[in-house]
Design goal:
By secondary structure, this protein is mainly β. It has one helix spanning 10-22; strands spanning 57-64, 74-83, 89-100, 103-119, 122-137, 156-172, 175-181, 188-190, 196-199, 203-210, 212-213, 218-229, 235-244, 248-255, 259-267, 272-281, 292-300.
Length: 315
C-alpha cells in the first residue's frame, strides 16, 4: 500500500506523508489503536487483566485524534470483565472500532485469565485472548492525482482476520507489571482482486505501575507502557498521576518523541468514574491541529463478592 499520490484533503495527505517518513515504503504502520488512558482500557491489550477488580466491570473509551483534520483517526472501545465464583478465574470481552481516512477496522475478542496466588494479596495472572478483526478500506473513494494508480484500484471489503493472543500480569493492591502480545497471527490483507495489500504485524506490550502513599489523603502513581511493533517505531508512555482524597486523579503523560497529555479522572462513587485526557503532538512541527480528546467511563457492580476486590481502585 504505497500512499504517495493522494490529495484526499490536504490534512489527510500530510498525515500519510508523516507515516511514510517513519515507515518502510510498504506501509506497516501501527495497526492497534493507541490510547492515553490505557489503564482504563488495559483489557483490550492485556487478557490477564480480566476479572482483576473482583466484580463485574464495564468500561467505554472514545478517542478523537488530531481534531480538525479531515480523516483523522477515531477509536472507540467497549470492555466488560468479571471474575467467576473464584477470583482465580476471570472472563472478559473487548469490542474495538477504529477508523482512519478510508480505513475501518472492527474487532471482537474474548479473554480468559487464571490467577496464581504467590503470597497473600499478590498474584500472577496468565491470560489468553481470541477473536477476530474485520477490515475495510475504501481506496476507490479517494481523489487521486494519478487516477490509474494500481495501489488504489480496488477496495478491501469486509476481510475477516481471526487471531489469538496471550499475556501475563504480576499484581497486588499497589503495583502491577506485565507483558502481552494481543495478536499472534500475521494475517495477509488482500483487495477485491485478491492482490495482497499488506500484512498484519506483531505488537508487543510491556506495562507497569506502582502506588506510593505520600499521606492519608495523597497518593502518586507512576506508570509506563512500552509498545513495540515490527518495522515501525516503538513508543513509550511515561505517566504520573496523583490521587487526592480517594476521589480525584490528576496526571501527565509523555509519549517519547510523539506527544504529551494531561488527564483527569473523577470518582463519583465506588461504582462510577469518569475520565478525560487532552494530547498535543510533538513529533512533527507542521502538524497543526486542535489536539486529541479522549473520554472514558467505568461502572463496577457491587455484590457479595466485593471483599474479593484486590487491585481495583488503583489499576
Amino acid at each position: 500500500m504505497k500512499i504517495i499520490h493522494s490529495h484526499w484533503h490536504f490534512s489527510l495527505t500530510t498525515a500519510f506523508l508523516i507515516l511514510l517518513a517513519v515507515c518502510p515504503k510498504q506501509v506497516k504502520s501501527q495497526q492497534d489503536p493507541v490510547y492515553t488512558q490505557y489503564l482504563n482500557n488495559l483489557l483490550s491489550i492485556q487478557p490477564a487483566y480480566a476479572g482483576i477488580s473482583g466484580v463485574l466491570s464495564i468500561s467505554a473509551l472514545s478517542r478523537a485524534q488530531w481534531v480538525g483534520w479531515e480523516g483523522a483517526p477515531n477509536s472507540n472501545t467497549f470492555t466488560i470483565h468479571f471474575p467467576m465464583k473464584s477470583f482465580n478465574v476471570g472472563l472478559g470481552l473487548s469490542i474495538v472500532n477504529d477508523k482512519w481516512g478510508p480505513i475501518l477496522q472492527n474487532g471482537v475478542y474474548v479473554d480468559y485469565a487464571y490467577r496464581l496466588v504467590l503470597r497473600p494479596r499478590q498474584f500472577l495472572a496468565l491470560g489468553i485472548k481470541a477473536g477476530f478483526n474485520t477490515y475495510h478500506a475504501r481506496f476507490r473513494d479517494l481523489e487521486l492525482n494519478d487516477q490509474i494508480d494500481p495501489s488504489f484500484a480496488q477496495n478491501v471489503d469486509f476481510k475477516m482476520l481471526p487471531n489469538v493472543g496471550f499475556g501475563a500480569l504480576w499484581h497486588s493492591d499497589i503495583f502491577f507489571l506485565g507483558f502481552s502480545i494481543p495478536k499472534l497471527f500475521k494475517n495477509n490483507i488482500v483487495d477485491d482482486s485478491d492482490k495482497k495489500v499488506y500484512r498484519e504485524v506483531l505488537h508487543m506490550y510491556a506495562m507497569g505501575g506502582y502506588v506510593f502513599p505520600l499521606s492519608d489523603k495523597v497518593k502518586i502513581k507512576p506508570t509506563f507502557l512500552f509498545r513495540w511493533s515490527e518495522q515501525t517505531p516503538s513508543y513509550t508512555d511515561m505517566a504520573a498521576n496523583i490521587l487526592l482524597y480517594e476521589r480525584v486523579w490528576f496526571g501527565i503523560t509523555y509519549r517519547l518523541k510523539n506527544s504529551y497529555a494531561l488527564s483527569f479522572q473523577f470518582i463519583v462513587n465506588p461504582q462510577l468514574r469518569f475520565g478525560y485526557s487532552f494530547d498535543l503532538t510533538t513529533f512533527h512541527e507542521n502538524m497543526v491541529n486542535s489536539g486529541t480528546h479522549e473520554f472514558t467511563i467505568n461502572y463496577e457492580f457491587q455484590n457479595s463478592r466485593r471483599n474479593r476486590r484486590y487491585a481495583a481502585r488503583y489499576f
